[in-house]
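Schema walk-through. Below, the input block comes first and the output block second. Nothing else is stored per chain. Lengths vary across the set, and this one has 459 residues.
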Amino acid sequence: MSLLSLPHRNFLQNLFSEADCLLTPEEMVVYEADASRLEGTPLAVVRPETEEQIIELMRWADTERIPLYPRARATNVVGLCVPQQPGIVVSTLKMDSILEVDSDDFIARVQPGVITGDLQKRVEQEKLFYPPDPASLGISTIGGNVATCAGGMRALKYGVTREWILGCKAVLPGGKTITCGGRNHKNVVGLDLLRLLTGSEGTLAFMTEITLKLIPKPESTASILAGFSNLEEALHAIKIMFKAGMLPAALEFMGPEVLAALQNSRTVPWPSTVTASLLLRFDGSHQALKADLEKAETIFKACNVLWSTTGIGKEEEEPLWDVRRSINPASFKVAPDKFSDDVTVPRGRLLDAVTGIRKIADKYSLPILTFGHVGDGNIHVNIMHDASNADELTRATSAKKEISKFILSLRGTLSGEHGVGLVKAPYVHLQLSETERSLMRQIKRVFDPHCIMNPDKAF
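--- output ---
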């Protein structure tokens, strides 16, 4: 039986079709949690198909003071979609149309439920390119990517999601609509509300349409997977590469614990003497790629590379990147549970960060996996543990807090691309002052005076 009152149920059932208004516990159970494994209590789940439905829902929910939780495919790992306060989950899965791809204006207009990978395939048919590539791009949506300002492996060269958002239509609590930006690649009129909404984690408004910037698709790509005998040599190679004027499209790092996890879960191509690895991708013209590969190989040899392999074109490159995509499933063979963080540090402090995290792992006798987009200082930190073991859970929680403080001591940040959600909310005060958080809360009240949009998240 739904916890909603009869008048509330009647309103939702009149606004949405029977198939798009879920009220029973059995229908709503999947909407209780997201990839963080945290759980909440949905009062109802609705699946709007039109902006008009969103407007009516936002007007009604604001009047009735009922929390709303925007949600797409719930791939985030920070509890961003979890209805911590009982409220209504608003799924965007039926707002999944690619409305326009314009090869003259170099833009795409999409609804929030469009899967990122599907959009990329569509624009590539026009020889266009949408670079943001979060690891979950095959299942995550543009709306979710915008809500968290998602990054990805190509963020080193192309930046994160905010660099690729030109405009949006959004509905505010109370039902008013706004249009931010448009299809112009430059626009400096007024305050940048578009950037404010991007990364706001669904706490300010509900986006119904998003306009994305596109560029010409690179002629070709090539990748190198290289193995080193220790962390120092691998991370030193990154410094030398940047100083040589090279900028890969993607530059990934895998630490010793990650390589061990991969070796225990699948066949790996590198020899057992490899304890740290770099995975790079270059893109551009065929001639430029040849020069980049030759230069990278020369740098690696100077940095005592033990082993490397090169792939040119999608067919040869995919096996190399499949190694990187295998980290998440491999991690759960190390332990059944994990705290998944994505901290960032200044590029010059990468070695300090990784070695310091390893010392914390030793201190708490826990396996902690470090890997990620080190080209832009973004390190994924997986604190592996068994949550059913009270002592391990306590140690993992303590390690998480110590790592957060340590990263901030290096002038780093608590999140590079996953957002804050519920998981990181207890630690935000370590990075943001009370004055800064107070300003953010005041901004939220301007957009959402009754705090119905994804309450208790982000800040």
